[in-house]
Amino acid sequence: EGTLVPSFLSLDTDGRVCRFDSASKTFAPGFRLSWLTAPKLLTERLAIMNEVFVWAMSGFTQQVLLRCVEELGEDGLHQHMQRLQWTYRQCRDSTVQAFELHLTGLARWQVPSDGMFMWMEILDVPDACRLSEAFVERGIAMVPGSAFQADSSAGPCSFFRVSFSQLT
């Protein structure tokens, strides 16, 4: 919505920013092909490491993505991304409506302007992990916020990361 926010990569003047991108949410769910934009020295070292750790990169997946990008062209790719942004915005708005209807007073959330995730805090539940199993049993997949903590010893977390990119 509104103006695009500059990426950290576009603001980097010292060659310290790495950017990872993926085609899984822009072309097809589960389309696991990603790439890295980073300073040359780092990409050279990672390329060597990649040769050791990645034994069977999918040539088929790479060819499919290349063919899609070639056939869409720059204008077609831009239009595809705009349609995708509109779709994600609709999914986000539907998620927010459902939260407002069913979770007001039980949880807090911040509506993101971009992306495909939002953070939801469960009120009066200090550890979201305690709810995860019950949610999964009911077909609800949300990742506890503790999975995203930089410090694993930080203790319990009352947040969930909620994806609205694929509503079911």
Structural features, described:
The chain is 42% helix and 14% strand. It is of the alpha+beta class. Strand 3 and strand 4 (117-122) form a beta hairpin. It is globular and about 50 Å long. The two termini are 24 Å apart.
Q: Quickly give the structural class.
A: alpha+beta
Helical percent range?
Answer: 40-55%
Quick one: how many beta strands?
A: 6
Total count of helical runs of at least 4 residues = 4
Low-confidence stretches: none
N to C succession of SSEs: HEEHHEEHEE
- Assess the beta-strand content as a share of residues: 5-15%
Radius of gyration, CA atoms, in whole angstroms: 19 Å
Shape: globular
**Oligomerization category of the chains in this entry:** single chain
Profile the largest sheet. Answer: 4 strands, antiparallel
- Round the mean pLDDT to the nearest integer and report it: 86
Span between termini: 24 Å
| Order of neighbouring strands in the sheet with most strands | 3-4-6-5
Main attributes of the structure:
168 residues; alpha+beta; 4-stranded antiparallel β-sheet; two-stranded antiparallel sheet; 4 helices; 14% strand; globular
Brief description of this entry?
This protein is an alpha+beta fold and 168 residues long. 42% of the residues lie in helices and 14% in strands. The protein has helices at residues 8-11, 40-53, 59-102, 129-137, and strands at 19-22, 34-37, 107-109, 117-122, 143-144, 159-163.
